[in-house]
Amino acid sequence: MRYLFILFTLLFLSIYSGKAQNTNGNKAAKFISLMVDSNYKEALDLTSADFKAKVNPATLSKIWKGINQQFGAFEQVEPLDSITNNNNSLILQATFKDYIVPLTFHFNTSGDISAFLMQQQPKIRANTNRSPANFPEEALKIKVNGGIISGTLMTPKNPQAGTPVALIIAGSGPTDRNGNNLYGVKANSYLLLAEALADNGIASFRYDKRLIGESVNFQTSQNNLVFNDFVDDAVILGTFLKNQKKFQKLFIIGHSEGSNIGIIASEQLNPDAVVSLCGPGENLATVLENQLLTQPSLVKEATSIINLLKQGKMTNNVPTELNSLFAPAIQPFLISSFKINPEEEIRKLKIPILIVGGTTDLQVPTSHAEKLKAANPKATLLLIKNMNHTLKTAPANKEANLKTYSNPNLPLNSDLVIGLVNFLK
């Protein structure tokens, strides 16, 4: 499910007085109330002329229903005294069944709503942040370049002297420390992985990557984020864990895009072992080109954009249907990612490596794991039957496979846990 960025024209025209801000707060709350009651025409009466020119009642209805589908049924908004004001804008916390969503409103000089969007990451309401198995957990905040990374350290219930620790690195997109994101993934894959490790005497640190989850207080923005920022963060976090006297060994475990991050960070960290879980074996540009072959109508324009990015050139000429892939804001990250060749990077490692692939992974086929193995023949290859991208047992059928993405109670594939623990021990 796509992350809904509801972006309209932003008008930053004046600084409001406290009285105006309070009025704006009432207007924002009323706007939501009208949408809850399906009074979309009346809700639009509270918006600016420019807003109305872009959005009609039918469109507003579609937007609101889409939000409810993505975040669960709307429940309430916070009282007005909890609204955050910032000159001509305010943030109102809206509570839905599954998420708490910060909704940002902007106003023009007449006090009409000129923009209604999500600029901050919603927080999952479900109780997925703590270990259901009650393994000891500690929330940590670690300083990295430009900001603070938030994460969770989980340890065995009865840790022994010299307990090993694993750094768990999340995959791409807004995937949080537990393996969940706003695209509809609520599988708890990383939380379950941490529990499996703790149950076998291995501590772990899983974290929200920069600009994700609780790791949002950074000086940089999405517009200048590059791949090496993630690598630098992993190196700092890995170094922090290595310097903790209670841990004897450091393992790096990267999932999906996190595999690339972990492999490259390992070149500096020199951990005791590195694990690639469903990691890509090809350059991201190649992956995108192959995926787009299934959409002939987009191939020509997409290939043109990819070729420009390969050359390190940005473009504002992005068709609407390709904006989720190639929006100008994320092009610097894509340019830096296109320079990464997983086969070349894994070839550099001289440490124990475990490469894991799942036969029912719809996103990263086992051919990628096999390519990584061929690039570093000393690595251990583990292909797990009926394991998908969420590290859970799933059939090849696409619809049934995708259902596992939203099931946090489904356990990890048992062969993965056995193979992973045997390798690390």
TrEMBL record:
It holds the Pfam family DUF3887. Residues 1-20 form the signal peptide. Keywords: Signal. Residues 186-280 form the Serine aminopeptidase S33 domain. It comes from the Bacteria. Residues 28-116 form the DUF3887 domain. This is DUF3887 domain-containing protein.
